[in-house]
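[step 3/7] fold_predict: job queued, chain A
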Amino acid sequence: MKLNKQITLALVIMVATSALYRVMPGRPLGFAPQIAIALFSGSLFASKKQYSFLLPIVSMFISDLMYQVLFNYGFSTIQGFYAGQIENYLLIAATTVFGFSLQSAKPAKFLISFFSAPTAYFLVSNFLVWAQGGGYHHAFTATGLLQTMADGLPFYPYSVASTVVFGAVLFGSFRLLVPKFKAA
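[step 4/7] structure written:
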């Protein structure tokens, strides 16, 4: 992968955002930048799809690696690596497709993507929790699936809110920094 200035800047912004949210004290569970990072990557690299899917994963991995080191040395209670991580990486990468439509600055497209990406992530991730017998081990019935979805509902509003907040940070900071970065 050849790193040009735009890819380098995008990756630095993604990693910094991903790492900074983790040190935010008392953050609500489910309030995380990963979906916004995937949308951002999909928007920037829609024509280079290999980068658009790879950058959110690289960003998450670097952040997770940093936090695993901090955890191992007792500086953090948050582990960087955990069970189910591969599925989470794949789901986050999949939400990148919602960013492909964000090439224009039309607010309606941002609203749709910023709502639909966390919704898709919520539905698929909770389905996988249920299908793999996770959570409270609800029965493999429609009622068990609905209960698993209900168990995840407290996290959903934070996921949508964080996608909006971090999306604004990512898209805004990139637009502000690109002219300065190109001049350097």
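[step 5/7] annotate
The chain is about 70% helix and 0% strand.
The chain has one domain: 5-183.
exit 0
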